[in-house]
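Pipeline run #58 for the internal structure catalog. This entry was flagged by the ingest filter as a single-chain record with no existing model, so it goes straight to prediction. Upstream metadata was stripped on purpose; only the residue string is passed forward. Reviewer on rotation: M.T. Logging verbosity set to normal.
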Amino acid sequence: MSGNAPIIQLLLTGNEIMSGDTVDSNSAMIAQWLGEQGLGVARKVTLGDDPAALQAELEQLARGSDVVIVNGGLGPTVDDLTAEILAAVAGVGLTEHASARTHVESWCARRGIIANDANLKQALLPAGCEIVPNPIGSAVGFQLTVHGCLVVCTPGVPGELRAMLPQVLANMEQHLGSFTPGDVLRLQTFGLGESTAQQIIADAGLDWPPEVELGFRAGAPQMEIKLTVRDRAHLAAQGWCRDALLTLFGDHIIGDGGTTLAQRVLALLAEQGATLATAESCTGGLIASMLTQVPGSSAGFHAGFVTYSNAMKASVLGVSEDTLAAHGAVSEPVVVEMVRGALARSASDYAVAVSGIAGPDGGTEDKPVGTVWLAWGDAQQVHTRGLCWPVERTLFQTMIAAAGLDMVRRMLLGLDTEPRYFKQRSQKHAR
């Protein structure tokens, strides 16, 4: 092994990846998963189904790495070449592996089919290799040490790869021996951009410990801040940095790990024994969709109303036709009535409503594309805010749905401070 920083490289295989027919999400999955263990990927290579090129590349990678993870090429077809490529690099032959054959036959039997020669090709593996169990698919993974490097071969199907990664890590740790994994702490935020967050940290003049690596991953709708230590001896420094960021960003931080706005809202509802309803126009049910993606969401989410037309706003939610005629669908009075209608019809404790102009058409001088009104509250009080978020339609819907959830989160937490994006995107002051 190379000191205390193992060199890990990836080899992704398949013509379908090279042609763009399949999007490579697996390398990102592997890198993110390794990152959680404080491990990094030094290099990744993607090649088509060319035996000579694959063999030459794997030979080079094995000579310069502690671990190589090969992804793809384990299946039953003629273009699945990984087993024979690894055998060639290791200088061994292919042989039928008894436990791999049993796995294939059992997989086929559970589906009421007889394992044919194509299926059984997946049991022909490099002599002397070890099996890496695949709890989902027909093709087992396998590994072999070549030139002192552990080469681990994994399937290209994302769900199968994900299920196998814990075992892959265990095998890597056994091979690497003395390496002590580090730690990555992730903070999920909403309403902050990378440049804004970086500037806030710089302006604070923090005595940032060099043992803690600061990283950002921008996304829609959330931004992730990563605090990485390569040695767990520096966990105290990592904790200090976390506390510093909590002070700097405060209520823009949703939670740790992979916490989403929807998960946080539902957790707060559960803590309070409360329920929520949604009333959506421009987001087309996206807020409800975000909530219902969370298992167990029915405990806190009562109902979602998608009232796209004025007629549906009136008939389903009871929005006054006079209000619609006087102010238009994208207005403060309309979203207030949408909230009240959702509360009344769902018997929920809280509701959130949105109505806006997603574009690319439909804007006016007074209400340009990107204009949106949000309302949230309970039977006693409804809060509102008009924003302008002039971005591409899908991104607009994503960000506005997230803003609606963020307002509910802030309400449930009893926060009275305004998020930064209110100042940046505001149309008029809150009520």
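catalog note: The longest helix spans residues 393-413.
catalog note: Residues 261-428 form a domain with the Maf protein fold (CATH 3.90.950.20).
status: ready for reviewer M.T.
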